Amino acid sequence: MIRLTEPNEKYLKSYIEAYDEYEDNHVTTYAFNDARSYDIFVKYDNYRNERNLKPNRVGASYFWLVDNEKDLFIGEISIRHNLTDALLQYGGHIGYGIRYSEWNKGYGTFMLKLALEKAKKMGISKILITCDDDNYASAKIMGKNDMVLQDKVENLIDGQKILTRRYWKTL
Predict the structure, then answer these.
(1) In the beta sheet, which residues pair with residue 158?
(2) Sign of the C-alpha dihedral, residues 126, 132, 133, 136?
(3) Dist. CA 152–CA 147, nearest whole Å
């Protein structure tokens, strides 16, 4: 059964494999954590409880899309509890990634659908998601979840000008 769950030890080995797939395939659209170098569960707990965060960071709840029967980590999605001015321009409420070997199987669309339900239960009534203008896969996922393209804005990210699509949905 494919489901969204809180991150847990049962899927950690598979999560690390997904991290390696991103590294091996030079994927930069979303960054899984290097679970070999620190305890990611402490990080997730700090974000969920909004403590020990770096400056300009906001609280967030992390979830993993997993296949229970295969003990397989498929993807990760985070729901930010609030937005800063910077997140209104780039980042939004939600960030997500699907492990490379599971791309193009509909998991991104399914995971976002489940996360939107969770966001509504968390009390978020209007949600923003952004993606780079050339990230057609994410744009397609947002469209399939009835998100509405508000506009495209130019952002300066790590010294580079990036055209960003901003999608909104009332929950």
Answers:
(1) none
(2) negative
(3) 14
Distance CA 40, CA 12 (A): 10
Backbone torsions φ then ψ of 12, nearest 5 degrees = -65, -45
Domain around 112? 2-170
| Amino acid letter, 77 | I
Rounded CA gap, 141 and 40, in Å? 27
pTM over 0.85: yes
pLDDT digit of tens for each residue in the chain (171 aa)?
999 999 999 999 999 999 999 999 998 888 899 999 999 999 999 999 999 999 989 999 999 999 999 999 999 999 999 999 999 999 999 999 999 999 999 999 999 999 999 999 999 999 999 999 999 999 999 999 999 999 999 988 888 899 999 999 999
**What 3-state DSSP class applies to 25?**
coil
Q: How far is residue 77's CA from residue 63's CA, in Å, rounded to a whole number?
A: 5
Total count of domains within the chain? 1
121: left (phi over 0), alpha (psi -120 to 50) or beta: alpha
Q: What is the CATH number of the domain that holds 67?
A: 3.40.630.30
φ, ψ for residue 6 (rounded to 5)? Answer: -70, 145
